[in-house]
Specification:
mainly alpha
């Protein structure tokens, strides 16, 4: 069977299952098993090895640990205290609470590594307060939906862990590579808000009474433990003292200690945090297993190798290849959730990008930004639905509020393309 026919068979079966309402993990795995049975049935016995090698991963152990760390911070109420303290320190900055949304999302994202969890955690606190102070619905929902996307770029990032484990690249390098682009995008969001506050002050009203020095000093009590936990996790990786998995373990233990110090570590908090971690990690792991089975089927049929050879034969310029890949992710990001899209496309796209001469660490950062865009573009933008439900508004309002940040994220991809060292300089110094 030719590789073209095999590819049509694999993706055809997968699409039929997906549109039929079958779970994504089952659709990916079933397409792979069916394809192997049709194309090379002798390899069916290798599927058990694929499954075992996928779950027997020291790198993937970091995922539930980071999820648990974020869940404890969220359910213990520490995230609420952190947001209110951050809002005190950002009083007087043009944009007021909207700026606090971006900063809080960026910092909380560094704790839980999940975009949806970040948007939901900060949104639950910010939306009632911003409505009370007269902020426009678009700036309110746009900053929360877009700010939440920083959760998968600023380390620790679960998509970076999945990407690194899938292609066999250093997760530590990916974490370090995401720091500067993550800060760059957060500052770009905040700069845009400052300009917006100048031209539409009725949508972003100025803050009221300025807090006193005593109030600012008291707010540090809720800021320092959270920031300190982030510095321990990222600093340990940065200094080479810990692997990402070890850092995740330290972070999870640190979150429990911080919750205990605030006297918020109850049985109910632990139970809810463990259940949330179990549900999310099970979902992620099953999708990873299904994607690895499909990847095994694609590689066994020689499809990635054939696609690379075809593109090389076209003698396309590397940046033309990149443009096509970006366009593909922008379109598919509107239809498929971020993690599934990454796992679905990596077996084919990664070899193509490497053959075009792009750095795998750099591409990992660009890929995550493209996935961020998918989180705030309809009809499947998960962050849009989360914020819409919390704000009690229409999806259109949230979408229009998020549109400027889609353009800013595209600007981030352009900046990384023109200056790859934005992502690569720091890992190069450390590794």
């Amino acid at each position: 069977m030719s590789w073209e026919l095999a590819a049509t068979l694999y993706f055809g079966v997968m699409l039929v299952l997906l549109f039929g309402g079958v779970w994504i993990a089952v659709s990916l795995g079933a397409a792979g098993v069916f394809g192997i049975w049709m194309v090379r049935p002798a390899l069916l016995g290798g599927i058990e090895s694929v499954v075992w090698n996928t779950v027997d991963s020291f790198v993937l152990t970091a995922v539930p640990l980071f999820l648990f760390m974020g869940a404890v911070i969220l359910h213990s109420g520490i995230s609420s205290r952190f947001y209110r303290s951050l809002a005190i320190w950002l009083t007087g900055v043009p944009g007021g609470l909207a700026q606090a949304n971006i900063a809080a999302c960026g910092i909380f994202a560094a704790l839980c590594g999940s975009s949806v969890a970040t948007a939901a955690a900060v949104g639950a606190i910010a939306i009632p307060e911003m409505k009370r102070r007269g902020y426009g619905i678009r700036p309110t929902t746009g900053t929360l939906a877009a700010g939440g996307t920083l959760g998968i770029l600023i380390p620790p990032s679960i998509p970076f862990i999945i990407y690194g484990s899938t292609i066999g690249e250093s997760v530590g390098k990916l974490f370090i590579a995401g720091i500067v682009p993550g800060i760059m995008m957060a500052l770009a969001f905040m700069l845009f808000l400052g300009i917006q506050a100048r031209f539409i002050p009725d949508q972003l009203p100025a803050s009221g009474e300025r807090p006193t020095l005593r109030q600012r000093s008291a707010a540090l009590f809720d800021l320092v433990p959270v920031v300190g936990l982030i510095l321990v996790v990222i600093g340990g990786i940065y200094a080479g003292l810990m692997t990402p998995t070890e850092a995740a373990g330290i972070g999870a233990a640190g979150a429990v200690v911080v919750a205990a110090l605030y006297r918020q570590l109850t049985f109910a908090v632990l139970r809810r945090s463990l259940l949330d971690t179990l549900r999310t990690n099970a979902m992620i792991l099953f999708i990873v297993i299904g994607a690895q089975i499909l990847s095994f089927a694609l590689v066994s049929a020689g499809i990635p190798r054939a696609i690379v050879a075809t593109i090389n034969a076209l003698d396309a310029a590397p940046y033309m290849v990149l443009l096509l890949v970006v366009a593909m992710y922008l379109i598919l990001g509107c239809l498929v959730d971020a993690l599934s899209l990454m796992l679905l496309t990596l077996p084919v796209v990664h070899p193509v990008m490497m053959a075009a001469g792009f750095d795998p660490i750099w591409f990992g950062v660009v890929l995550v930004i493209l996935l961020e865009i998918g989180l705030i573009t309809p009809p499947v933008g998960v962050n849009l639905f989360v914020i819409q439900g919390m704000a009690g508004t229409t999806l259109g309002e949230v979408g229009w509020g998020s549109l400027p940040y889609v353009l800013l994220l595209l600007g981030g991809v352009l900046a990384l393309t023109l200056v790859p060292d934005i992502a690569l300089w720091l890992p190069r110094q450390l590794f």
